[in-house]
């Protein structure tokens, strides 16, 4: 390294690219390659704005006290924007590529190369930040937040960002932000935006800034598991646990507007396999961070709201202790209950909490709670307990009316009469989700008896699990040729074809779950195309006719099937470029 010039100390939220540019300017090197040689030990690199490599070498040669490679990545690259939305192993692989000397496959690994979200091709700056940086630090610099996808306005000043029109360096050079506006030309990156659009873009930019400032990096790859409770609370989940995709997409587009979503490259095109569908299904591929942030804002109002509410959503009835609602007890409405059992309502799919107090009183209610007052809402009494029963006996001895006793004990008059006359014994809590079948002292009838009673509710629940498991096995089978999910196919697999065909009205849960998995012709053809592409993963180039033949498609398939074929061919091209990257020079990608 040039001994006369030390690496500049980075400013807040300054890009590593910007630090390199300032070093090059101070060192007065005639070509950027000399600066690359001094900073990275090699000149065979291309400076990258968002996800550079060679950071381990740069950290050692910069010799800034206390600045490790991890510090540079976290505070001065776009790594914190992408890593939370990747599987853990891929996020670790990304970190190693950025630290190492070969970053030629970084953008393909993250999914930027194959994404339809436009990657910023120009360096951007905020005019007000430019002036403030000169006043505070004596020079301007490139801010990291301004370069991220989805950031069109400054999150601090709400001004539309600008891009430099001249002078602009070539691919191997460095674009320095001059200290005087007379030394360069610039234009806004977009013009004629309405006030509403600027407000929306400003809110999105602030969400992204909040993500970048988060100290403990969240893990957001399994987005369905994270958002499921929130989706259920807002009515986007069926009783069978399936996402109401059409309703979700309609409300999502209404929230942002088609114009803004098209501007951000995030309008959910298609019918069954849009990015929004994939973001709310079990994770099979990474979704672009910008799109995930849009979904978070739609569900929670803001990213900070998501951080605050995610813990609450994990606890649909809030944090204990919870109040005892036994009006016969002295501790009535006092929060002393610590025993909570949560199950799922088979009719609505909503969580059901059963609260049991030490006094023996137990009650249940459906959740999730929407307000603080919901904690005092009682649904069904599961057990009255000895305290309540003793109080009932006291009132009976006092000779007061049944109606007065009902008001004092918090129940209806009929309940008081039943317990007063001894016709009902205290109910005990059932340990399982479903009611136990009643036992009978009558002899068991033979199988052929016409009077044999069938517990259709129990049979429906048991069969629904078997059917759903069979559907999931078909979808997860990547080795064998795909099988279309139909009533006949599932019925034969589980040995219950007659039941599924002739007793639909008695099996509502099973029928609903099965209907969610049934595939249309186009859906099945798309799945066959993906299976065929996976089988041909080692071939390059993938021929369209060969992929169609492997998938067993006949002429006349729908447009969405054709689009999926094109996507699979394009994805194969990306993976081939990754595999062949070993022949490229050492680049700062």
From TrEMBL:
Pfam annotation, one family: TnsD
Residue ranges of every copy of the TniQ domain listed in the record: 8-158
InterPro entries per the UniProt record, alphabetical: TniQ (IPR009492), TnsD_C (IPR032750)
Domain of life: Bacteria
Domain Transposon Tn7 transposition protein TnsD C-terminal stretches: 204-422, 445-514
Name this polypeptide is given: TnsD family Tn7-like transposition protein
Annotated organism of origin: Effusibacillus consociatus
């Amino acid at each position: 390294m040039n001994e006369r010039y030390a690496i500049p100390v980075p400013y807040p939220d300054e890009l590593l690219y910007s630090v390199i540019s300032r070093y090059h300017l101070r060192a007065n090197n005639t070509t950027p390659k000399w600066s690359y040689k001094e900073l990275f030990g090699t000149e065979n690199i291309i400076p990258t704005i968002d996800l550079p490599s060679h950071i381990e070498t740069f950290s050692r040669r910069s010799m800034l006290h206390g600045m490790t490679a991890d510090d540079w990545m976290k505070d001065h690259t776009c790594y914190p924007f992408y890593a939370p939305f990747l599987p853990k192993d891929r996020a670790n692989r990304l970190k190693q590529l950025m630290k190492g000397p070969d970053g030629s496959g970084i953008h393909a690994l993250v999914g930027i190369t194959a994404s339809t979200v436009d990657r910023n091709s120009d360096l951007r700056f905020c005019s007000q930040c430019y002036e403030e940086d000169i006043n505070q630090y004596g020079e301007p610099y490139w801010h990291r937040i301004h370069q991220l996808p989805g950031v069109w306005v400054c999150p601090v000043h709400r001004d539309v960002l600008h891009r430099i029109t001249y002078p602009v360096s070539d691919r191997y050079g460095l674009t320095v932000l001059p200290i005087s506006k007379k030394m360069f030309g610039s234009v806004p990156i977009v013009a004629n935006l309405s006030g509403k659009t600027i407000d929306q873009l400003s809110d999105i930019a602030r969400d992204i800034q909040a993500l970048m400032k988060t100290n403990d990096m969240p893990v957001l790859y399994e987005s369905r598991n994270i958002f499921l409770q929130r989706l259920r609370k807002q009515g986007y989940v069926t009783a069978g646990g399936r996402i109401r995709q059409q309703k979700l997409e309609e409300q999502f587009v209404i929230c942002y507007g088609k114009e803004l979503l098209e501007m951000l490259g995030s309008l959910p095109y298609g019918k069954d396999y849009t990015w929004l569908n994939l973001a709310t299904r079990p994770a099979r591929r990474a979704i672009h961070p910008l799109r995930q942030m849009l979904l978070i804002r739609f569900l929670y109002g803001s990213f900070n709201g998501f951080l605050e509410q995610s813990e609450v959503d994990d606890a649909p009835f809030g944090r204990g202790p919870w109040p005892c609602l036994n009006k016969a007890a002295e501790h009535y409405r006092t929060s002393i209950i610590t025993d909570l059992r949560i199950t799922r309502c088979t009719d609505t799919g909503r969580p059901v909490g059963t609260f049991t107090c030490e006094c023996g009183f137990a009650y249940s209610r459906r959740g999730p709670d929407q307000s603080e007052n919901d904690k005092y809402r009682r649904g069904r009494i599961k057990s009255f307990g000895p305290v309540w029963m003793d109080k009932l006996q006291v009132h009976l001895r006092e000779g007061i009316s049944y109606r007065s006793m009902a008001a004092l004990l918090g129940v209806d008059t009929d309940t008081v009469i039943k317990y007063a006359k001894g016709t009902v014994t205290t109910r005990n809590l059932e340990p399982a989700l479903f009611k136990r079948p009643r036992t009978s002292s009558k002899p068991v009838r033979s199988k052929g008896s016409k009077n044999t009673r069938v517990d259709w509710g129990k049979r429906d629940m048991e069969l629904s699990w078997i059917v759903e498991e069979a559907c999931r096995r078909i979808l997860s089978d990547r080795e064998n040729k795909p099988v279309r999910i139909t009533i006949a196919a599932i019925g034969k697999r589980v040995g219950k074809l007659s039941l599924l065909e002739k007793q639909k009205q008695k099996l509502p849960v099973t029928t609903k779950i099965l209907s969610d998995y049934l595939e249309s012709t186009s859906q099945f053809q798309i799945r066959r195309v993906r299976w065929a592409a996976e089988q041909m993963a080692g071939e390059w180039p993938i021929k369209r006719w060969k992929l169609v033949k492997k998938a067993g498609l006949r002429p006349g398939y729908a447009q969405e099937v054709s689009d999926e074929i094109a996507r699979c061919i394009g994805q194969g091209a990306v993976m081939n470029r990754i595999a062949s990257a070993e022949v490229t020079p050492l680049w700062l990608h």
